Amino acid sequence: MSVEHEKENAALAAMEYVEDGMTIGLGTGSTAKYFVEALAEEVADGLVVRCVPTSEQTRELAESLGVPLVPVDQVQQIHLTVDGADEVDETGNLIKGGGAALLREKIIADASDHMVVIADPSKQVDRLGAFPLPVEVNPFGFTITAKKVYDALCASGVEKPVVKLREGEDGKPLVTDGGHYILDCHCKRIPDSEALSARLSSVPGIVEHGLFIGIARTIVIGNENGATVFEY
Ligand code: 5RP
After folding, report:
1. What distance in Å separates the CA atoms of residue 196 and residue 157, rounded to the nearest whole number?
2. In the chain, which residues have pLDDT < 50?
3. What are phi and psi of 143, to 5 degrees?
4. Is 48 helix (H, G, I), strand (E, B) or coil?
5. I need a labelling partner for 50 at 20 to 30 A (CA). Which of 19, 24, 105, 136 fits?
6. How far is the CA of 96 from the centre of ligand 1 (A)?
7. If we measure between CA atoms, which residue out of 58, 59, 67 comes closest to residue 18?
8. Is residue 25 lining ligand 1, measured as CB closer than 6 Å?
9. Residue pLDDT, tens place only, 33-58
10. Sign of torsion over alpha carbons 64, 65, 66, 70
11. Based on the number of CB atoms within 10 Å of its own CB, is 155 exposed (0-12), middle (13-18) or buried (19 or more)?
C-alpha cells in the first residue's frame, strides 16, 4: 500500500464536499495536488466552481489543468477549502507550513465556511510537535524575532527547542510567496498547542505560525480502500 495511494484516496473522498457553484480554497502540497487534479476532471465534465489558490505553486497547477481561478480580493465568501497537513492531532488541530504556504493557507482556511483536511495516516499524532513547527517572520530583525520565538516556546513548556532559519536549495534563506522567512521550530513535543499559538500570535515580527487551532472541521484520512472521516 503506497502513501501516494492513501493521499489520493483522501483527496477523492474530499470531492464529496464539492458542490456546483462553490468558491473553493485550494491547498498546497502533494496531497492537495491530488484534490486539484480530481477537481479538474470534474470541471472538464461540467462542474462549475471558482477557486482561490493558497500558493503560487498551486496557482500554476490549477491553471495548467484548467481549474477556474478567481482573484482573492474579488471573493465575498469561500464555501470550502481542502488542504493537506503536516500533523493532525486527535482534536483536529494541525501543524501546517511544511511547504512554506502557511500564511495564505491560514487566511483562506480561516475565512472558509468549511475546511476539510486531507492526509495519509502518517500525519495522525497523539500530540503535535514531532514535525518542526513553521513560523513565518518578517525578514526585518528576524534574529530578534527568532529569540522571541524561542522564549515563547520555552514559556509554553517546550523543552530545549531549536529554532532554525529555513534555507532553500541555494543555501540562502527560503523566501515565501509573501516575501517572508520561515523559522522551523524543533520542539519534539508541544505540551499545550493552544497556549503556544496565543503566545506566538502576540510576538512582533511573526507574520503567522503553522498551528491551526480549531480551524479544520473535517479530517479525511486516506487508506487502502477509501478514507476515514472525522468531524469536529
Ligand atoms: C504546505 C502545507 C502542506 O499542506 C503540508 O506540508 C502537507 O503537505 P503534503 O501533502 O505534501 O504532505 O502545509 O504549506
Report:
1. 9
2. none
3. -70, -35
4. coil
5. 136
6. 6
7. 67
8. no
9. 999 999 999 999 999 999 999 999 99
10. negative
11. exposed
